[in-house]
Design goal:
The protein is mainly α. The chain folds into 3 domains: about 1-50, no CATH class; about 75-135, DNA polymerase, domain 1 (Orthogonal Bundle), CATH 1.10.150.280; about 145-220, DNA polymerase, domain 1. The protein has helices at about 20-25, 30-55, 60-70, 80-85, 90-105, 120-125, 165, 175-185, 205-210, and strands at about 75, 130, 145-150, 150-155. It has a two-stranded parallel ribbon. A hairpin with a 2-residue loop joins strand 3 (about 145-150) and strand 4 (about 150-155). The radius of gyration is 40 Å and the shape is elongated.
């Protein structure tokens, strides 16, 4: 007697079929391929994210720290853009600082910032860590100072006769104020230091800097 053949599934007379997974049984091959195409990139992305996120040497967080590290700027050399990035100083105040520097002259110390309109003691104290004044780079008043026997002697000038270039060597006088002084001489006779305040832009603080360098001999000769 011949026994009937029994396949793996237990059916008689049928050839054995390979094992089929539940997913293959319920989802066609096309559907399975679509699912893999959609979810595989997401799975790979999550697995590779830590590697992508890790900064390389010289890049990422380390590099940003280098770029954003606070740098002290020379108040007399910093540009308008550089000053605008200093904490507490925006574009408007930076413009005022540069304008003041061009008209009046270089700052001798950070405390001179309070002479700029809109800047008070609080802001001066705040920018101490971001700005500095290099005393070696401040233009020397060579036309008006000379050393005699080791002591410093101040050479004075007459604002009624000085050229624009000579006036620009005075402390607190830049190109703009020097030009105004020259233009004012046709209308104003400078007979004493106080008369310098008749020039637009020269106030008490600037006059205080100027007085040691001024004399008025042209008015003494009659």
């Amino acid at each position: 007697m011949i026994e009937p053949k029994v396949n793996v599934a237990g059916f008689m007379g049928e050839k054995a079929s390979p094992a089929v997974s539940p997913i293959e049984a319920y989802y066609p091959a096309a559907v399975q391929g679509a699912v893999v195409a959609v979810f595989l990139p997401a799975i790979l992305g999550f697995s590779l994210w830590p590697l992508v996120r890790e900064p390389r040497i010289g890049q990422g967080e380390y590099a940003s720290k280098q770029v954003s590290a606070p740098l002290r700027l020379d108040l007399n050399r910093a540009t308008r853009v550089e000053l605008a990035q200093v904490p507490g100083i925006g574009p408007i105040t930076a413009g005022k600082i540069v304008e003041f520097r061009d008209q009046v002259g270089p700052f001798s110390s950070l405390n001179d910032l309070d002479q700029v309109k809109g800047i008070g003691k609080a802001l001066v104290n705040r920018v101490q860590r971001s700005l500095y004044v290099n005393s070696e780079n401040i233009p020397t008043r060579t036309l008006f100072k000379e050393k005699l026997g080791g002591s410093l002697v101040v050479k004075k000038i007459d604002p009624n006769l000085a050229t624009q270039e000579q006036l620009m060597e005075l402390p607190g006088i830049g190109r703009v104020l020097a030009a105004r002084i020259v233009q004012s001489r046709g209308q104003v006779q400078f007979e004493k230091a106080e008369d310098m305040k008749k020039v637009l832009g020269i106030g008490n603080k600037t006059l205080e800097k100027l007085q040691p360098f001024l004399e008025f001999p042209s008015n003494q000769v009659k």
